[in-house]
Amino acid sequence: MSRSSLALSNLRGIVIVIVLAFHSVLAYLASLPAAPYAFDLPPYRWQATPIIDPHRWFGFDLFCAWQDVSLMALMFLLSGIFVPASLRRKGSWVFLSDRFVRIGVPLAFVVAFIMPIAYYPAYSVSAADPGLEAFWRHWLALPFWSPGPQWFLWMLLALNVIAAGVHRLAPTWHERLSRQMTELGDRPVRFFLVLAGISALAYIPLALAYTPWAWTNVGPFSFQLCRPLHYLVYFFAGYMIGAHGLDRGLIACDGPLARHWRGWLVAALIGFVLWALPTSQMLGAGDAPLLVQFASGLGYVVACAAGCLCFLALCLRWTQARVRLLDSLSDNAYNMYLIHYVFVVWLQFAVLPLALFAIGKAAIVFAGTLAASWAVSVALGNALASQQVAQVKRWLGASFSGLKAPAMIKQDD
Question: Who contacts 335 (Cβ-Cβ below 8 Å, separation ≥6)?
C-alpha cells in the first residue's frame, strides 16, 4: 500500500471515530430546548436529536458546529477519490452492481429494521403510552420512514450512479479531470479557491431559498435541502483527485498540502469563525437580513473547504505509518457506521436519569458506542469471512472430487 493510500485509510478510521463522537454528544448541546421534541409533530426534529438530556455543555455545541461544517463534505470527498480507479478496473455495470450490493442492500436492511429500534427511545420519552404496540402505530403513521444517519449512504449511492453514468457516456472524462488536476495538485491554495468558488455557486442560492437548516423526508430518503449540490461538488472533487492518482499532486505525502499543515489548520479555524459569526446572528432571530444570510453561506463554503484540506493535510503529514488500531477502525468503519446509531440512542436513553454532568454522560455514551459497534462489526466480519471460506472449501472440494474420478477411471483402464 502506498503512503498516500495508507494515510487516507487511516483518515477513514479517524473519521468514523469523529462520527461516533458527534452523534454521542448531540443529546448534551446547550442550544437544545428544555423538553424533548414531540414525536408526531413536524418538522420531526427528533430525527437529529432523539434524546434531549437536561445536562448540557456549550463546548459540545462548538464541536458539533465545526464537524457539521466540514465532516460530511470530507466523507463525500474521500468516497470520490477511489471511484475512478474502480470504474477503470471494473467498468460501469460491474461497478454499479457491486455498489448496489455493497451499499444498497445493507442500507435497505438497516433503514427497514434497525432504525425503528434506534428511534424507539425518542418516542418513549414524550409518549403517553410508551408501549411497543403504540410506538409501532405512531411509527407507521409518520409521513416518512426515517433513515437516520443513513441518509449519507443513499446519497452516496446516487452519486456513484451518476459517476458510473458519466463514465459510461464519456470514458475519457477522467483523463480530462486528471489533466486539470495536474494544474491544481501542486497549488493547494488555488485548489481551495476553485473548490470554495464552485461550492458557493452550488450552496448559497439553496441556503438563501431554504435556510441552512431545513430538511425534507420522502419515504425512506432524507436530505438537507441546501446541501445536495454542495455534496455533489465534493464527491467529484474527490473523483478528480483520484483520477490524477495517489502519491502525487494534492495528496502526495511530501507535497505542499502536507508540508503546510500548520497553515491549513489556521485557515480552518479562521474559516470556522467566518461562518460562526454571521450564523450566530441568524439563530432565533426570525428572518435575518439578506446580507447576514449571504455572509453565513459564504463563510460556510470557505470553512468547509479549509476544514477538508486541513483534515487531509494533517493525515498526510502525520498518519503515514501503519497502526494496527487504525487498520482495524478503517476496515470496520463502514459496518460501524451502519449499526452505531442504535447504540448511541439507547445509551443516551439509559444514562438519562443519572445525576451526572454532561461530559461524563457523553463519555459513557461515546465509549460504549465505540466499543459495541466496533465489536459487533468485527464479529460480523469474522462470521462473513468464515462463511466465505466455507463456501470456497465446498467449491474446491467439489472441484477436486470432480477431477479425481476421471483420473481413477484412466488408471483402471
Answer: 373, 376, 377, 380, 381
Give residues with Cβ within 8 angstroms of 89, minimum separation 6. Answer: none
284/279 Cα distance (integer angstroms)? 10
What confidence tens digit (pLDDT) does each residue in 178-225 have? 777 777 767 899 999 999 999 999 999 999 999 999 999 999 999 999
Beta bridge partners of 222: 217
DSSP-derived letter for residue 100 is: I
If you write DSSP's letter for every residue of 124-193 in order, what string do you get? HTT-S---HHHHHHHHHHSSB---GGGHHHHHHHHHHHHHHHHHHH-TTHHHHHHHHHHHHHT-HHHHHH
pLDDT in tens, 65-121: 999 999 999 999 999 999 999 998 999 999 999 999 999 999 999 999 999 999 999
**Amino acid at position 69, single letter:** V
Question: Which range among 139-153, 178-192, 233-247, 384-398 has the greatest average pLDDT?
Answer: 139-153
CB 195 within 8 A of CB 305: yes
- From residue 36, give the alpha-carbon distance in Å to each of 136, 213, 270, 281, 411: 19, 19, 34, 25, 80
The C-alpha atoms of residue 61 and residue 52 are separated, in whole angstroms, by: 13
Q: Length of the chain, please?
A: 413
Residue 269, C-alpha cell as written in the block: 479555524
Cβ atoms of residues 283 and 212 within 8 Å: no
pTM equals 0.91
- Output Rg (C-alpha) for the chain, integer angstroms: 24
- How far is the C-alpha of 246 from the C-alpha of 78, rounded, in Å? 12
* Cα–Cα–Cα angle for 154, 160, 161, rounded to 5 degrees: 90
Neighbours of 319 (CB within 10 A): 20
Q: Looking at the predicted structure, is the pLDDT value of residue 410 above 60? A: no
Give the Cα separation of 36 and 213 in Å (integer): 19
**Of 373, 236, 308, which Cα lies nearest the Cα of 67?**
308
* CA–CA distance, 33 with 323 (Å, rounded to integer): 42
